[in-house]
Amino acid sequence: MLLEIYTPERKVFEGEVYGVQMPGLDGLFEVLNHHAPMIAALDKGRVKIIQQGDKHETCYYQISGGFVEVLNNKATILAESAIAEALPAAQEH
């Protein structure tokens, strides 16, 4: 699945991913490959990106709210702000 994350200033992330977990207004939810079309509002919180591959490594972004659209195996997050989180040294490969 293609994931793109945009802020008003720039594109923050683009890549093929296994899935993405997002902070919805009613709690966390996850979108995987070939998810049904949807649009949802996002709350402030952490976006967890699950990478492709055998290990399904993850990366995280803090967002301050926004929206997500899922259509044709592509998820597009429009966030007010998105900041990549650094992994602790023990988790880096």
Overall description:
- The chain is mainly β and 93 residues long.
- It has a single domain (2-88), classed as Sandwich (ATP Synthase, domain 1), CATH 2.60.15.10.
- It is 0% helix and 67% strand.
- The protein contains no helices and seven strands.
- Strands 1-2-4-5-6 form a five-stranded mixed barrel.
- A hairpin with a 2-residue loop joins β2 (11-24) and β3 (27-32).
- 19% of the residues are buried.
- The model has no long low-confidence stretch (mean pLDDT 92).
Write the layout of secondary structure elements.
Layout: E1 2-6, E2 11-24, E3 27-32, E4 38-51, E5 58-71, E6 74-79, E7 82-84
Parallel strand pairs: 1-6
Antiparallel strand pairs: 1-2, 2-3, 2-4, 4-5, 5-6, 5-7
Identify the notable features of this structure and list them briefly.
single chain, 93 residues, mainly beta, ATP Synthase, domain 1, globular
Compact summary:
It contains no helices and seven strands.
Major sheet summary line: 5 strands, mixed, barrel
Query: How many distinct folded domains?
Result: 1
Helix count from the secondary structure assignment: 0
Intertermini distance:
24 Å
Q: What is the name of the CATH superfamily?
A: F0F1 ATP synthase delta/epsilon subunit, N-terminal
- Coarse structural class: mainly beta
Q: What is the string of SSEs from the N terminus onward?
A: EEEEEEE
Question: Could you estimate the helical fraction of the residues in percent?
Answer: under 10%
- Low-pLDDT residue spans: none
- Assign the CATH topology: ATP Synthase, domain 1
Q: Could you tell me the radius of gyration in angstroms?
A: 13 Å
Highest-level CATH class = Mainly Beta
CATH architecture: Sandwich
Average pLDDT works out at 92
**What proportion strand?**
over 45%
Query: How many runs of DSSP E, i.e. beta strands?
Result: 7
Gross morphology is globular
What is the topology, as strand order, of the major beta sheet? 1-2-4-5-6
